[in-house]
Amino acid sequence: MGLKVRIIPCLDVDAGRVVKGTRFKDLRDAGDPVELAALYDREGADEIVFYDITASHEDRDTATTLARRAAEEVFIPYTIGGGVRTVQDMRAMLRAGADKVSINSAAVRTPDLINEGAERFGSQCVVLSVDVKRAESGKPSGKPNGKPGWEVYLNGGRLNTEMDAVEWLVEGERRGAGEFVLNSMDSDGTESGYDLDLISEVASKTGLPIIASGGAGHPGHMVSAVRAGASAVLAASIFHFGEYSIAEVKEALGEAGVPVR
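The structure assignment produced for this chain is given below.
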């Protein structure tokens, strides 16, 4: 834990509004994305992530308008994902003001997008995000211990590819991704804690920074994620609905011995 851990609010955007649900369902409105991001900036967040959560499913382009609006109000690094399908889409997001572009569904369908993005813009701009669920216990895993692993889902968690998530991330690193977002669909919005087994498994097989996502309910969960191998912790519900402030989270992590910015 030598490097300082990043605290990253995640803003899931649908029809121009921030929404948050549980396991990708029962969405609640949480406000205007740029207003919220600017608030988190003022409160001391280290980065912001915006996800257009229906862009891939509805075959839409991620709104460059959001990237431009954010560039005017947000002065910390921010990432935008959702509906990015080509290097031209990535270029548009970066030119509009985003510091990084997150790719998920398109990277699975066209893995060369990772290579092309890294070669064109640098690995530091390419974030490989995965939405994963634990495989069913009765399903053969092909793993030495026989335990089921995690499967990759696309289109906002609607389509199960049955791809092994850890193997996919190993390939993503080889192709030039700069960091990972591990979003556990089993834990998403539950506030019951991150999937620590997933984090530690990926950390043992890859060398890239890991952003833990899905399940944060209190700072203790974030401490556990860092100890499992995460370099950054992403959260939504606890910030959007006023359960914790950025400052409270950083204070709690610092008291637990986790170095924060």
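Interim note for the steering committee: The chain is about 35% helix and 25% strand. Residues 33-43 form the longest helix (11 residues).
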